[in-house]
Write a structure and sequence with these properties.
Layout lengths: L6 E5 L4 H12 L3 E6 L16 E4 L5 H7 L5 E4 L6 H4 L3 H21 L4 E7 L23 H20 L3 E6 L1 E3 L11 H10 L3 E5 L5 E6 H11 L8 E4 L4 E3 H12 L4 E5 L14 H6 L8 H19 L1
Parallel strand pairs: 1-2, 1-4, 2-3, 4-5, 5-6, 6-10, 7-9, 8-12
Antiparallel strand pairs: 9-11
The structure holds nicotinamide-adenine-dinucleotide.
Length: 317
């Protein structure tokens, strides 16, 4: 089947990753349906809203999922009720919402003959504290937060559904995506928060001494890889998705200073136990399999987000 005939549904498609993915899919000729909460804000979708279908519903409601999957070929699962920071406050809630509803989604995918499901997992949390850098997909670590445990368990259920019922899937263990449409008030991610607070001349709180290292990938590079994967068939199922380069929080602050010409006003707080000291992903499997390379440098990406914030700052104020 040609791309333009494939129907993709993105659960959580109104958010940061989902809206960038929706745009890339539309550009590549897919039919795209965005599924997001009742009355969700369409701001992220405005530049291509006439080229997509929208379904409002609750991902945690079985009937809403059942209805949404009719006549779809590809499912992209981007909904999460937690982020790493808050998931340990109530692991039972994390399991009851994210794990149960994901299994429900997989059941409905079988019932609706979905040809492939893409699950965005977390390269930053599923490995826990790595023994070797960069981290390869086969490293088995112990997550430090419920969010990572639940993501890893959802991955395992995908393997089970594949074996039992033939549900095809890819898992992307995404590192730290950043870029346009990332909300500095609600999303995960230090770059939008640091950048927004720098623009607003607000105090920036850094947990620890700023030497924590992360693998940051520009969102357009990340979604480009995911969309490319839809045209490749391989028995590999789990792919790290990162830039393969590590930057400390202090280095990020320096780039933000260079790009904005404003000195970030930083205060250092005690380190948090859920933060692993270093995380850099080895994404060579994704590079090789999907003939893909991340193209955007950290500085270029931060500059894109800076310009985006200057243009859209009212939305986030
Ligand atoms: N942003 C990151 O740094 C990062 C890194 C790795 C993995 N992920 C994962 O990628 C996914 C998307 O992340 P994001 O940064 O785009 O988040 P986001 O908050 O920007 O987007 C998530 C979207 O899901 C929607 N949603 C939440 N609950 C819903 C429900 N019950 N029914 C319908 N829609 C609902 C929200 O309204 C939102 O539009 C999440 O699963 C997240 O865990 C994110």
């Amino acid at each position: 089947m040609k791309n333009k005939n494939k129907n993709c549904i993105i659960f959580g498609g109104g958010g940061f990753i989902g809206s960038n993915l929706a745009e890339e899919l539309v550009e590549k000729g897919y039919k795209v349906t965005v599924f997001d909460k009742l009355y969700f804000n369409r701001f992220n979708l405005k530049s291509f809203i006439n080229n997509i279908d929208i379904i409002e519903g609750d991902f945690f409601n079985k009937q809403d999922i059942k209805k949404a999957l009719r006549n779809k070929d590809i499912v992209i699962h981007l909904v999460s009720s937690t982020v790493p920071e808050n998931s340990n406050q109530n692991p039972i809630y994390d399991i009851e919402t994210n794990l149960i509803s994901s299994i429900n989604l997989f059941n409905e995918c079988i019932a609706n003959n979905i040809s492939k499901i893409i699950f965005i997992s977390s390269g930053g949390t599923v490995y826990g504290i790595p023994k070797k850098i960069p981290i390869k997909e086969d490293y088995y670590g112990h997550p430090l937060c419920s969010y990572g445990i639940v993501k890893k368990t959802i991955e395992d259920y995908l393997f089970m559904f594949n074996r039992l019922y033939g549900l095809d899937f890819y898992i992307f263990r995404l590192s730290n995506p950043f870029g346009i449409r990332q909300n500095p008030k609600v999303s995960q991610g230090v770059i939008p928060v640091f950048l927004y607070k720098t623009i607003k001349k607000e105090k920036i709180e850094v947990w620890g001494d700023g030497t924590v290292v992360r693998d940051f990938i520009y969102i357009k590079d990340a979604v480009n890889c995911i969309v490319k994967s839809l045209n490749v068939n391989t028995s590999e199922k789990i792919f790290n998705l990162g830039s393969g380069k590590g930057y400390s929080l202090n280095e990020i602050l320096k780039v933000i200073h260079d790009v904005t010409n404003i000195k970030p006003n930083v205060i250092y707080l005690p380190a948090r136990s859920i933060d692993v000291p270093i995380n850099i992903l080895d994404s060579s499997l994704a590079r090789k399999t999907f003939k893909w390379e991340p193209k955007t440098s950290l500085k270029e990406g931060i500059n894109n987000l800076y310009k985006y914030f200057l243009k859209n700052i009212k939305f986030y104020d």
